Amino acid sequence: AQHLTHREWLVQSFRDMRLAPAFGERIKNTEQQASDSLFVSEMLAINPDRHACAEHLLGLGFGLLKKGDMVQAMYRFNQAYLMEPGNTGIRRGYGAFFVALDRPEEAIAEYQKGLALDSNAVPLLLDLVGVQLSMYHAWQGTETQKAMRLLEAATMHMERATRLEPSNGLARYKLAVCHTLRGDCSAAWNAY
């Protein structure tokens, strides 16, 4: 497994655009474009459903990330991007990659890019709030105002998630946590 530090990732992603989300949005040369086209056509020959191909690659990427192989995980997330750039799961993958790098701000940026594609993507909202709550706890003692803004944003996101999916237990749980942290026990009980 290849676990990276943030510095190692910066150096490697500068050299290899496949290690940057959405290939770093860099312009590809003719050889790279041909390689991408060949990859897509080979995937579609196996399964003509671009969404199913992207989901398969995302599953592989999350599995690799869980095993600590960050390099191969990012490769799979970017291959999924080639198959279906508008799939919000790809932004979840990129966000999870940055969580693994302990870069919460970059993770939040990726989740927000995904929400710009689909503002009703509850899995993205759940992941975003997980990072926001983590940052809230990190800043609670030193940067109280910043921490409270994060908590308010997390609460708003979970209220939205529970409106979109009222039976989503994880969304209800995270909303209850938000309300508890805000000191609103009544709302916490109602959420749970």
Could you spell the SSE succession in H and E letters?
A: HHHHHHHHHH
Tell me the overall shape. globular
Q: Give the distance, in angstroms, between the N- and C-terminal Cα atoms.
A: 39 Å
What structural class is derived from the secondary structure elements?
mainly alpha
- Main β-sheet, in a few words? none
Beta strand count = 0
- Ranges with pLDDT <50 over ≥5 residues? none
Mean pLDDT: 95
User: How many helices?
Assistant: 10
> What Rg do the Cα atoms give?
18 Å
Our estimate of the beta-strand percent is under 5%
Helix content: over 70%
Could you provide a short overview of the structure?
The chain is mainly α and 192 residues long. The chain has helices spanning 6-15, 30-46, 50-67, 70-83, 88-100, 104-117, 122-139, 144-164, 169-181, 185-191. Helix 3 (50-67) runs parallel beside helix 5 and helix 5 runs antiparallel to helix 6.
Detail the topology: elements first, then pairings.
Layout: H1 6-15, H2 30-46, H3 50-67, H4 70-83, H5 88-100, H6 104-117, H7 122-139, H8 144-164, H9 169-181, H10 185-191
Report on the architecture of this protein.
- By secondary structure, the protein is mainly α.
- Helix content is 76%, strand content 0%.
- The chain is built from ten helices and no strands.
- Helix 4 packs antiparallel against helix 5 and helix 9 (169-181) runs antiparallel to helix 10 (185-191).
Keywords:
mainly alpha; 192 residues; 10 helices
